[in-house]
Amino acid sequence: VQLQASGGGLVRAGGSLRLSCAAPGLSISAYRMAWFRQAPGKERQFVAVISRHGDSTTAADAVKGRFTISRDLAKNTVYLQMNSLKSEDTAVYYCMGRRGIAYWGKGTLVTVSS
């Protein structure tokens, strides 16, 4: 199973981006889906998660109120809407699907210029 993150790019501080995570090979309705990020020289950190049933979301304090995780079951895709971006949001963003075993995809780079 290989998750496919996309939507990264270069954006100015205060701008917005929407990341997508396609999940061929697994049904996102059966998995807890999450976004993580890793900035240069730092450890990978949790960003946001959506429950298997889609009725609960949690975001890290650093992004709460600015980032929103959501999903589209028809497209089997998870999204991360990122608003009011800051330079400290610059990182490679990864999506993960977990149901016992965790599956990761290749990341997508988000660069926020100040």
How would you sum up this structure, described in words?
This protein has 114 residues and is mainly β. Helices cover 0% and strands 55% of the residues. It is built from no helices and eleven strands. Strand 5 and strand 6 form a beta hairpin. The mean pLDDT is 96.
Q: What is the topology?
A:
Elements: E1 3-6, E2 9-12, E3 17-22, E4 32-38, E5 45-50, E6 57-59, E7 67-72, E8 77-82, E9 91-99, E10 101-106, E11 108-113
Parallel strand pairs: 1-10, 2-11
Antiparallel strand pairs: 1-3, 3-8, 4-5, 4-9, 5-6, 7-8, 9-10, 9-11
Keywords:
114 residues; single chain; 11 strands; globular; mainly beta; 11-stranded mixed beta sheet
The residue fraction in helices comes out at: under 10%
Structural class: mainly beta
Low-confidence stretches: none
Percent of residues in beta strands: over 45%
Short description:
With 114 residues, the protein is an all-beta fold. Helix content is 0%, strand content 55%.
